[in-house]
Each structure stands twice: as structure tokens, then as C-alpha cells.
Fold:
Amino acid sequence: MKEILEEEGLEVSLWDPKDSPYTILEQPLHLVPDASGFPQWMHDKKKELEEADSFIICSAEYNSALPPALTNMLDHYPPAAYKDRPVALLTYSVGPFGGCRIQINLKAHVTELGMVPVPASCTVMSVGSMFDEEGNLTDDRVKANMVKQAKELKWYAEALKSYKQIRPVPLPPKKQ
Structure:
């Protein structure tokens, strides 16, 4: 998917919970009185989120559920870091459902964080049989779905970004 997104002219930054030193979430970054105790890399990642035009979440399905490491990573940051930007959802599994059983839960989770899911979703079933020895995707249907999703993500990112320049996102009413 990374190559497909790059072919569409999108800059890609990969975040993988297993490659990051996220601890079990006790207190998210935005809910502590003094965030200076958090490591600098977390502040850097938050800034990267805030500067992104869009997101794509590629997730495995584990026991018909979202991976705890994914939600743990996402929940470290405030909803404002994600708010009003499109997100594409790509799910996969080793079985015949391709992660479709977590699509609804993932959509609900990202919506609560303020992201706007694009209509095109992509599921990859029997993921172990979809790639050759060099790691190249061999299934034309899945590749076509990925291309469609990447094009849609780019369109929504450009549309939302340009519209926000014309009419900013409404702010919640101030407390009196």
C-alpha cells in the first residue's frame, strides 16, 4: 500500500506499534497537567499527526477484534491531533474474512478520535497467500481496491484541506 500511496503523490510515514516504545496507556498526553515528563519522541509524533493531511490505518484482525497495540498507540494522542482529516481503513487477516469483522469497530474508533473515514474500504483475506517471495502483492483485485482507496483518500484530503481554507471547522461553544 505504501508504494500505491506514493504513486498517488502522497508522502507516507509508517508507524508500527511493535517498532515504537509505547507503554500501556495510563494517561494520554493531553490529559496530564505537565506533558514535559513524556519523552521527546512522543511530542514529535504528536506534531507529525497534527501536520498530516490524512491517515491510513492498516490493521490485522485478532480474534474478531482490534489489536490492543493499535488502539493503545492511537489513544496516546489527543483527538485534536487527528480531527477533521480523512482516514482510509485497510484490514487483513489470515482467514477468509480479511479483517471485515473489525472494520465497523475501527471506523467507530477513528470517528471518536475525530477522523473522517473515506467510503472505500479494503480488506485482504488469507493475507499469507497474497504476496510472492519478494513481498509483492499478487492479487489484482486487492491491488485495484488499494488503488481506489488511495485515490479516494487523496481526493478527500485535498477537498477537506481546501474547504477548511474557505470555511474553518466550527469551534465548540465557549463555556460561560
